[in-house]
Amino acid sequence: MFKKILFPTSATEACDHAARVAFNIAARYDAHISIFHVLGVPTRGFSRIVLDVKTKEQVELDEDYTAWVEEDVKTHYARQLESAKDFKIKVCVGFPHREILREARAEKPDLIVMGGSTGDAEDSVYKKSMVGSTLQRVARAARCPILVVNRPAASFWGGMSNVVFGTDFSKASDSAFNFACKLAEKLDCELHIFHALDISSVHMGRIVAQDEIESKIRESLRRIRGRYAGKMKNIKDYSFDVWEGIPYIEIVKYAREKHADLIVMAHHSKKPEPEDTHLGSNVEQVIVRAGCPVISVNR
């Protein structure tokens, strides 16, 4: 299912859970894994003075320093690399999201595995870029699914029995559904299709009658069955559910109730308008809060 995996990393403990998943997937599918590290951010323009990700110091970039950083990455993942059959380590300089997307375009991976955080220190150079703009921009523009492993509990791949797919009935969700279906079929696990009826923003300022909520839930269930049921002939076990509430909270709660091993969601590929950012924010909030890995698909 996966033949090429791109693993962007800060080569710190913050990415170790994502690393474990990335190497496990590579071993399971006999896939090539590319370990990609952006060592620093240019101080200005094309200057050779960069702000090092790990030391937070300004350093002059040369071949020796680049080689030293590459060796440091290799040392950090020495245990995983002992059993890795097909891998490469690449180090570069630049803004993380641009370099990750450039590498993804060049390598054309089947999957990108990322950590949801890259460090604990509030003054971390990479963290400021990664948590906010980098993950969001990569998820929005990447041409392949992105698996985000944010919490320690979500540190393995394999032996899956429950996959939750969260839908908002968008075109992007159709792509995410196709991926979730293929995954559930390959792993022979249950697929739970879930829609969270958002009653927090649509009805702001007025009390929503329970009859209206129940009516919308029934309508959403009809939409789920009509949109997805006919495409699930090869899935042995599946379920449909609709809950009302704040979407990202309900998705996390639903995944916890179903003992989900993985959540699959769509991420819009276009830049959201200020008044229509709920999908992107939902994906990001689920990534932060979920107790299992989250896969973001945008096409």
Radius of gyration: 20 Å
Total domain count: 2
Average pLDDT metric: 84
Reported by name, the CATH topology of the largest domain is Rossmann fold
- The CATH architecture assignment of the largest domain turns out to be 3-Layer(aba) Sandwich
Report the biggest beta sheet as strand number plus sense, adding barrel if it closes. Answer: 12 strands, mixed
Shape: elongated
Low-confidence stretches: 118-131, 272-279
The CATH homologous superfamily of the largest domain is called HUPs
How would you describe this structure to a colleague?
Helix 4 (96-107) packs across helix 5 and helix 8 runs parallel beside helix 9. The radius of gyration is 20 Å and the shape is elongated. The protein has two domains: 4-149, HUPs (Rossmann fold, 3-Layer(aba) Sandwich), CATH 3.40.50.620; 162-297, Rossmann fold. The chain has nine helices and twelve strands. The chain has helices at residues 16-28, 63-76, 78-83, 96-107, 125-141, 171-187, 210-228, 247-257, 278-289, and strands at 4-8, 32-42, 49-52, 58-60, 87-93, 111-115, 146-149, 162-166, 190-198, 238-245, 262-266, 294-297. The longest helix has 19 residues, at 210-228. The chain is of the alpha/beta class and 299 residues long. Mean pLDDT is 84; it is low at 118-131 and 272-279. Strands 1, 2, 3, 4, 5, 6, 7, 8, 9, 10, 11 and 12 form a twelve-stranded mixed sheet that branches.
